[in-house]
Amino acid sequence: MTPADMAALHALCFTHPAPWSEASFAAFAADPLCFTLTEADSLLIGRVAAGEAELLTLAVAPQNRRRGLGARLVSRFVYQARLRAADHAFLEVAANNTPAITLYTAAGFAPTGLRRGYYRTPGRPPVDAVLMARVLGPPDAPNI
Question: pTM to 2 decimals?
Answer without folding.
Answer: 0.89
